[in-house]
Amino acid sequence: MFLNSLSSAISFVPAAGRLRCRPPAIRAMDAAQPFDMEAQASDLMDRSVRLKIAIIGFGNFGQFLAQTFARQGHTLLAHSRTDHSAAAASLGASFFSDPNDLCEQHPDVVLLSTSILSTATVLRALPIQRLRRNTLFAEVLSVKEFPKNLLLKHLPPYFDILCTHPMFGPESGKDGWAGLPLVYEKVRIGDYGDRAERCKRFLDIFEREGCRMVEMSCAEHDACAAETQFLTHTVGRLLSMLDLKSTQIDTKGYEALLKLVQNTGSDSFELYNGLFMYNKNSTELLERLDMAFDSLKKDLFGKLHDVLRKQLFEDSAEN
Ligand code: NAP
Questions:
Q1: Is 299 exposed, middle or buried (0-12, 13-18, 19+ CB in 10 A)?
Q2: Which tens digit of pLDDT belongs to each residue from 252-292?
Q3: Could you identify the atom of ligand 1 that is nearest to the CA of residue 113?
Q4: CA 217 to chain centre
Q5: Is the CB–ligand 1 distance for residue 82 below 6 Å?
Q6: pLDDT score for 266
Q7: pLDDT band at residue 149 under the 50/70/90 scheme
Q8: Nearest ligand 1 atom, CA 266
């Protein structure tokens, strides 16, 4: 039944469309079909969920996301300060040095993957008047309240806004995204036309990869992320300064530390700095970490002093 209605839909595609020929009528249901009807059907279905996504900030993380978007068949456009046209071409994306040209392609989704520190400048420089009026703006910054407020302030009310944070990166997500969290808040999604559907289609990209979908407010995200993400990056960066090496007698705990260094080491300092500067909870976390380290040292040195003092007094009593 479903295939039948698709087959008639295919035959009505206008001559300028991709499926130009009307297939010869099928006389018996079990007869060999003249072309791969199932593949055509699936192509038609796929095209109905495909999005044209413009990635702004085509660096480390933008390119990492693009690999999966491209594999799922979405049309990709990219723009960055640096010329990443070769990387874009290798992913089947069209690279635009001029953001005017990119916006004139009328993407369904504009995805900001710029560094936290540069996002406000990049957003202000985007010629949003060249976009379709109901474009969906999404972003993947590792802090959430800051871009939410920025987008609400900067974008006219007819643009939709979706804040997301894939809680993984090129290192931790290199073997797939299954089970990895995608945090999101639908900040402003219009309830007319196909806006809700377009937002769902974008989120479906992550759901199809098996991500754990976590709907959470941006404020709640930032409170949690200071304790989890900023702490993880801080400890990873601290340990990387010790230039740790693997030995023949590594314990599981030590292996976990080496992995932490590896996971956080490929991220830029700019990203780490953004986690600190643009999450108000990070300062408190850093202070707590500092106090915890001091108190740990006090405990250790206090005990050492006790032992030394005891020895000193015992020695003097013997003399
Ligand atoms: P990043 O250092 O945070 O950002 C690099 C991107 O920002 C590049 O595209 C770079 O442009 C652009 N950029 C930096 N300074 C700029 C400036 N002054 N003007 C214009 N563009 C500028 O590294 P990233 O890992 O690619 O992260 C991108 C975003 O994804 C960040 O917001 C980060 O928080 C978020 N994120 C990252 C991860 C991760 O694991 N890496 C995970 C989740 C979310 P060029 O291409 O021209 O260099």
A1: exposed
A2: 999 999 999 998 988 999 999 999 999 999 999 999 999 99
A3: 29
A4: 16
A5: yes
A6: 86
A7: very high
A8: 41
How far does residue 61's CA lie from ligand 1's centre (Å)? 7
Asked if residue 169 has its Cβ within 6 Å of ligand 1, the reply is: yes
The protein residue with its alpha carbon nearest to ligand 1, atom 31, reads 115
71 in Cβ contact with 90 (< 8 Å): no
CA of 201 to the centre of ligand 1 (A): 24
Say what angle helices 269-277 and 280-318 make with each other, to 10 degrees.
100
Q: Which of 80, 129, 138, 132 is nearest to 109 (CA)?
A: 138
To the nearest whole number, what is the mean pLDDT of the chain? 87
pLDDT, tens digit, 9 for 90 and up, residues 217-233: 999 999 999 889 999 99
Q: How far, in Å, from the CA of 160 to the mean position of ligand 1?
A: 22
Q: What's the CA gap between 211 and 202, in Å, rounded? A: 13
Among protein residues, the one with the nearest Cα to ligand 1's atom 42 is 169
**Nearest-CA residue for atom 1 of ligand 1:** 115
**How many angstroms is it from 310 CA to the middle of ligand 1?**
56
Q: What is the pLDDT of residue 43?
A: 53
Mean pLDDT of 56-67: 98
Token pair 């038609």: residue: 44
Q: For ligand 1, is residue 80 a contact (CB within 6 Å)? A: yes
